[in-house]
Every structure is written in structure tokens, then in C-alpha cells.
Design brief:
With 350 residues, the protein is an alpha/beta fold. The protein has 14 helices and 10 strands. The chain has a 6-stranded parallel β-sheet with strand order 7-6-5-8-9-10, sandwiched between helices. A 4-stranded parallel β-sheet has the order 1-2-3-4. Strand 8 (246-249), helix 11 (258-265) and strand 9 (270-273) form a beta-alpha-beta unit. The longest helix is centred in the first third of the chain and has 17 residues, at 48-64.
């Protein structure tokens, strides 16, 4: 997929698992379809790209949706909601199809509050609103929208679990470079960590609009041993988890971060802020160490504590590993098939 992020990862995983279900035939339509041949050059031009891609997307919706019974629509917030989910909802309704709206954004409350006329009426047209966390169920309920939580899926066989007898000060951050994911908070925390551990290192995986500002901040803080690795493949990401000894997350706004769940599955202890739905995923002192949003000093202190108290770190690693078993396909399969309205399937995974 051209768009890298949590929704793309979930789409890939769901497609892979649903293809193994004998009662389901699954197709895929990207929200950013590619123009054919030389016309693809138009998609390299700002604004022209949006117009041409939108026209092609609408055409593909009109010609593809009639062949399917259920339309599973992944959704973010704000303008992207209008560009991608909204047309899919309208066309699916036009053809009388069952709509499962799968909303992932941690910015849901702000989106629904400030864009009510372009979001709530369309959301009410979905037969089922599915969100990854109880946090978003509570947010949608504030606006009179019933939603059900079906957890994100992680695949253990695509990750590497490594038992860490001794934790080194080797840290990892894996979020897109957007302000609400707080990579700057991680960098400021790492500056403090390096004062305690001179050989500490940090890898930062991701990309986005804050790239230049984050590079400048790293230089301003005079950070050593910081590597910005950019966007990576799923296989390469598994290696990054494997090579690190502690995962840092500095989110200001969030929902149910896949990166935290994947860190659990890889045997990494996690230090995170309590943004949005994260407290529904982690328990402070049990499966992770949790600090307040924007408190980079507390983030640093908690990370140092994990390195210096291996017994605590090992308890957290074991609890996190056990927790993430709630997010396997076997754990959520039944709920997805119910959301689709499937009736001719068994409760045992195939």
C-alpha cells in the first residue's frame, strides 16, 4: 500500500485473514487508486492529484461496489473523511449494501464536534460502526452514535519475540511524524536519558510533515546515537523491535496504537503517555509505565527506571506479552464475521 500507517496495516491483516474464511470472498479498493499509464504523472501534481484521484475513486466505487454484499470502510477524520469514507458510504447506500464503518482516528471527538454536519449524518447511514477501542465507543456515544469495539489485530508470526535478560539503553520510537504523536516529546526525554546513560541510543521509525522540525530539534538538543530510519517495511519493522530493548511513545492524541501492541508481542517493555485510548490498552505498573501527556521528564524517568530495575522490567514484559494475546485474529474473528452479518460460519477458526 502507498499509504503507510495503522489503518493500512490493519487492512492488510484483515484481508489476509478473511481470505482464509470459506464463508467470505474479499476484495480491496484503495482510496488512492493509480491512474493508468502516462496519466499517472497527473498524480504527481499538487491539487491536480486530489481532483484526478477523487474522480477515479468515485468511478471505481460505482463499478466495484455492486459486486459485493458488505462494504467495509476504513475511516480517519476531518478532510480525509470527506475524501474517502464519505463517497464509499454514499455509493454503498445507493446500491443498498451493508455498511461497516471502521473508524480508527484518535481525533474522533474533535472531528465530530467541529465537523458535525459533514460527519454525523453520514455516520448514521452505516449499519455498523466499529472502532478499535472502548475509548472510541465512549466518544461516539457522546454524539448519539452507537459503536462496538473490535480490537486491532496483531500477528505473532510476523514479529520476533526476544527474551531480554538484561535491558540495554537501546530505545525505539515508531509513530508517524505528526504533532499529535509527540515524537518531539520522545526526543526531549531521550536527551535526559543520555545524561544518565552515555551510550544510550534511539531509533526513530516513521515519516511525515514534522520531519524537518524533528531533525532540527535533535540537532538543537545535541543528541547522540539517534537514527531516523524513515518508513520501513513490515519485515524491517519486526527487526527494529527485535534490536531494541525499550519502546517509547509520546502521543498527545491517540486511540489504540498498533506499535504498543507490537512492542508487547516482541518482548519490549513500554513507556507511554496516557493519551486518548491508551489507558484502555495498558495498565500503569503492570503492562507498561504510563506518564501524563507532554511530560517528557516523567517519560525519561520511567525509561531510566526500567533499565535500572530489571525485575520490574521483566514483570512488565511478561504482562504485556500476555495482554497482547487479546489482539489475535482468533480473539476477534467471531466479532468481525458478526459485524458483516455472516451466518454460515463456525465459531472455530479455520
Amino acid at each position: 500500500m502507498d499509504i503507510v500507517g495503522g489503518q493500512a496495516v490493519q487492512a492488510v491483516r484483515l484481508i489476509e485473514h478473511l481470505k482464509q474464511e470459506p464463508s467470505v470472498a474479499v476484495g480491496f479498493l484503495p482510496v488512492n487508486p493509480r491512474l493508468p499509464g502516462v496519466l499517472r504523472k497527473l498524480q504527481a501534481i499538487k491539487y491536480v492529484r486530489t481532483v484526478t484521484t477523487s474522480i477515479l475513486y468515485w468511478w471505481k466505487l460505482l463499478t466495484t461496489i455492486p459486486a459485493f454484499d458488505v462494504i467495509h470502510i476504513f475511516s480517519a477524520s476531518y478532510f480525509s473523511f470527506l475524501l474517502a469514507p464519505a463517497p464509499a458510504i454514499i455509493v454503498a447506500r445507493l446500491f443498498g449494501k451493508r455498511i461497516v464503518l471502521n473508524y480508527h482516528s484518535g481525533e474522533a471527538e474533535d472531528h465530530l464536534q467541529h465537523w458535525p454536519r459533514t460527519s454525523i449524518p453520514l455516520l448514521k447511514k452505516a449499519h455498523e460502526i466499529v472502532v478499535p477501542s472502548p475509548y472510541l465507543v465512549r466518544v461516539f456515544a457522546k454524539f448519539g452514535l452507537p459503536a462496538k469495539a473490535i480490537f486491532n489485530v496483531i500477528d505473532f508470526d510476523q514479529l520476533i519475540f526476544r527474551k531480554r535478560e538484561t535491558l540495554r539503553p537501546v530505545f525505539l520510537s515508531n509513530r508517524n511524524f505528526e504533532a499529535h504523536y509527540g515524537i518531539d516529546v520522545v526526543l526531549r526525554a531521550f536527551a535526559i536519558i543520555q545524561q544518565r546513560f552515555q551510550d544510550a541510543s534511539l531509533r526513530v521509525a516513521g515519516d511525515g510533515p514534522c520531519r524537518e522540525a524533528l531533525h532540527e530539534l535533535a540537532a538543537e538538543l545535541k543528541l547522540r546515537n539517534v537514527e531516523f530510519v524513515g518508513m520501513v517495511t513490515r519485515a524491517a519493522m519486526a527487526e527494529l523491535y527485535n534490536e531494541a530493548d525499550c519502546f517509547l511513545n509520546g502521543s498527545r492524541i491517540d486511540n489504540q496504537p498498533l506499535s504498543i501492541l507490537e512492542a508487547f508481542a516482541s518482548g519490549l517493555p513500554v513507556v507511554t503517555t496516557n493519551a486518548g485510548g491508551i489507558p484502555d490498552v495498558v495498565t500503569d505498573g503492570v503492562t507498561a509505565l504510563v506518564v501524563e501527556v507532554d511530560d517528557h521528564e516523567a517519560l525519561a524517568r520511567s525509561a531510566i527506571t526500567l533499565i535500572e530495575q530489571p525485575e520490574l522490567a521483566h514483570r512488565i514484559i511478561d504482562a504485556g506479552r500476555n495482554e497482547c494475546r487479546r489482539y489475535t485474529w482468533e480473539a476477534v474473528r467471531h466479532e468481525w464475521l458478526k459485524a458483516y452479518g455472516a451466518t454460515d460460519y463456525t465459531d472455530d477458526a479455520t
